[in-house]
Amino acid sequence: MEKSMNDAINCGKKYVMNTYNRLPLVFTRGEGCYVWDMEGKRYLDLVAGIAVNSLGHAHPQVAEAIAQQAKVLIHCSNLYWNQQQIDLAKLLCEKSGMDKAFFANSGAEANEAAIKLARKFGKERYHIISLKKSFHGRTIGALAATGQEKYQKAFRPLPEGFSSVPSGDLHALAAEIKPETCAIMLEVIQGEGGINVPDASYLQSVQELCRKHQLLLIIDEVQTGMGRTGKGFAFEHFGLQPDIITLAKAVASGYPMGVMLAKEHAAVYFVPGDHASTFGGSPLACAAGLVSAQILLDEDFLVSVTEKGAYFQRGLKTLAAKHPNKIADVRGMGLMIGCELTIEAAPVIEKLLSNGVLVNGIGNAILRFVPPLIIEKSDIDLALEILDSALAEC
Ligand SMILES: Cc1ncc(COP(=O)(O)O)c(C=O)c1O
Prior knowledge:
Helices cover 40% and strands 18% of the residues. The chain is built from 14 helices and 15 strands. Strand 14 and strand 15 form a beta hairpin.
């Protein structure tokens, strides 16, 4: 007899560690912007694995690249070279203006690599300043860099040498720079912090402070990168020239990959033995990354992301005008959009879910829209229509 969705979930609760607040759904397949649960119900996916499935589900070119590579060579260790890693490093460097790549398996790991590189660059300097409300990952170093007490408090003591200051407050940032500071680390648009878009002049001033004090500027593009905001990398919107950027999430369309890219003057500080990752940059991961990067970083594709993002934001702003007592703010760039409610987000998310739309919440009141970048305007219209009714009922 076939197992029911509830049976599967109960078994999961018994054997899988309890680290996530999961909705009671088991997904079995996806295609484009849609996913299907075990009972055959279809959902429009505006979560996209939290900004991971930027090419949607089961993208034919990604699936083909993974299948072909799996038949030839899955893994071969970084004791040797593999062509896929070389090709992907070249493409990501050319597209980002960076010089060298280090491959890992997640965003946190990419940030750990950046932290270590900054400390090696700093020699006796080791202190890294990040911003309040930032999110850089759950491993112990990335967690120390994360500017949110709620993620840190149960895990103290954290490694020393990290502090965070409020975003937008240049005086606080300047005051925090000490003789032992080696880098400033930030997300251009804070994702987990609530889709917070900063002032261009603030970011420019941060960069000037970095230059003045010989600090590395590390930009965490784990969520914003690979076309999500309508540019290949969000720093490009603000004319920044970071020394290090980190990528993960969409970089290999859901195949696990994290990347640290660095300018030569920083990259040169890593020498053999300084850092490594068994799985990082495997032929299989890089085959997935290569086809993903070729599509996601194409100029015409990026223009389409900008257009669809503007269309989505316009639709949300129209809803905000219709429901002024329910929507407080609509913000974001490209297809990374936050919609801040004046009411609890959970019942709205539940209504959307029961009407076949997946949306994720940040905190208690923000709806986060990070759909596949291949989304069609007709899907955006459908999402807006269902959100309109959900808001009317909440
Ligand atoms: C900006 C940012 N950095 C780092 C991370 C951590 O990435 P991962 O979960 O792949 O370790 C995330 C995850 O949400 C993120 O949004």
